[in-house]
Design a protein that fits this description.
- This protein is mostly helical.
- It has 9 helices and no strands.
- It has one domain.
- 79% of the residues lie in helices and 0% in strands.
- The termini are far apart.
- The relative contact order is 0.18.
Length: 192
Amino acid sequence: MPGLLIQLALFGSTFVGFAIISDWRSGVIERFRVTPVNRLAIMAGRVLRDVVTLVVQAAVLVLVGVAFGLRAPLPAVLIGFVFIMFVAIGLASVSYATGLLVKSEDAFAPLINTIVVPLLLLSGIFLPLTLGPGWLQGIARISPFRYIIDAMREAYLGHYFNTIMVEGMAVAVGLAVVCLWLGSRVLVQENA
């Protein structure tokens, strides 16, 4: 279940940039220039909408899992939702920033896929990275999703207070903060 939830967050939040390209093309972003609204608030509003959507989808996925025999403690499920929220905040922000920078669906899709697929493979969602060669394990250490998925797996095992959980939460929060900041910077520059 943790792997499916992270996949949902990865793909669900990285492709939201298509919407901002459409908004830019139709003049919505241009109209933001004349509003007195803080640009971080504009970005945060869009991102929070995506977070709510992903959490609802994650809840449906967990309920389907329970129907098929998933037995996870409630704190683990709630911690998983928190991780989904932070991943969605970070990746949706980057997706919006990327959409504003490339301004083309034809360039956006391959760029996002080129980044997301290796991140997904290096996270250890599909196979434990311990099965791979040492050089691959070394490269995987730079992937933030490796730490997040490991922490979610620990939570689903009932281990809430250990180093893996602290690392995973720190990476998730750090990723969300940095990416939201970067996304808002791009929006500010777009509106300058």
